[in-house]
Amino acid sequence: MSLIVHNARLLDPATGRDQPSSSVLVDDAGNFVSELSPAARSGARVVDAQGLCLAPGLADLHCHLREPGFTHQEDIASGTRAAAAGGFTTVVAMPDTSPVADNTAAVQLTRDIIRQKAVVRVHTTGCVTLGRKGEAMANLGSLSTAGVVALTDSPACVQNNDLMKRAVDYARMFGLPLLDPCQDASLSAGSQMHEGEWSLRLGLKGWPAAAEDIIVSRDVHLSTYIGAHIHLQSLSTANAVDIIRRAKARQVRVTAEVSAHHLVFTDADLHDYNTFFKLSPPLRSETDRRALIEGLLDGTLDCIVSGHAPFAVHETDVEFDHAPFGVTALETTLSLALEALHHFGRASLLQTLGCLTHRPAGVLKLAAGTLAHGAAADFILFDPNEVWTPVAPGLKSRSHNTPCLGRPLRGKVRHTFVNGVEVSL
Known about the structure:
Elements: E1 3-12, E2 17-26, E3 32-33, H1 38-42, E4 45-48, E5 53-56, E6 58-63, H2 76-85, E7 88-93, H3 104-117, E8 121-124, H4 140-146, H5 161-173, E9 178-181, H6 185-188, E10 193-194, H7 197-202, E11 206-207, H8 210-226, E12 230-233, H9 238-249, E13 254-259, H10 260-264, H11 286-297, E14 303-305, H12 313-316, H13 333-342, H14 349-354, H15 358-363, E15 379-388, E16 409-418, E17 421-423
Parallel strand pairs: 1-4, 1-5, 6-7, 7-8, 9-12, 10-11, 12-13, 13-14
Antiparallel strand pairs: 1-2, 2-3, 5-15, 15-16, 16-17
């Protein structure tokens, strides 16, 4: 049926609109419209959004949904319910499944599961190398034909420079962005946290910032040389921000993201060896955190992502050295972004939402992040000031490895709509 939402504060970052007491109309095809017929109005569902903000559904360029293959950690159903609870109506799933998405059959298998189980829009990616092993290139042409939106070995980074060069060249030929988590494995091998004061205090092997900076530099040079679009995933260092800023000034075709956790937390938060703070790349210093925020605000970094990487209790409730890297994040990303940017007065609510809506959608040219008439009615109603505390039983994700457990957060999604239909939260 048609839908009418009244009395919302309308926030559309793509157009700069911030209007109080606005109404939004959705036709029975699930699209935003400027008018409804009398018959459609009479049969429409009416939602009074008094006190709530209405914004485009959030878009996440980096999440791990684990299915097929690792459903003890997450599956498409639980992962997309978590996405909806966090306000995400569009997510891009990484290919680290089992089987890995390095061929058309594996991509089709994942898409079949998505059609059956997903409650939000899920876009698939394909592997750069066979088996994500970094040894031989996958058939990128067939993956392009299969309809993947990007190529990546995430969470692995292709280490062989010649192989990466050829992959970037092919990705350009097929018109696909290549997403790269920038880590030099020879420098980061065996590392547990950021190399610095706190790694010395805690007696943990440090992960040098240079491991990221070197690969960021490599990818900038490859993009310059080949003219291909390379998207740099989950950046964490001040030097990386500086490298990208200078590259963009030269019109190099690179884009970059940062996770919300890296905007809020630092390596000092690992003081009690809490494995829920163990991220890849690791949480860095306060200097790095501030540089990431500055880079996001001046456009050097294009968007905020969740980096959602769920793990089961038996995998995280171990000694720090044996715990995996990653956190569940889809349900808390909006609140953390608001904390880092809006609630501390660094950015307006509209600017903050832009980092999670039209800006990420623009990186991969996804049809998302807009309230424009004729667009699919993917939107959220949320209270940016509502305080809530994540607790394990209340989370939609199958895994609960988040440093936000028991931590009061500010900003809560009340309703999520996909194609004009409300998703049960």
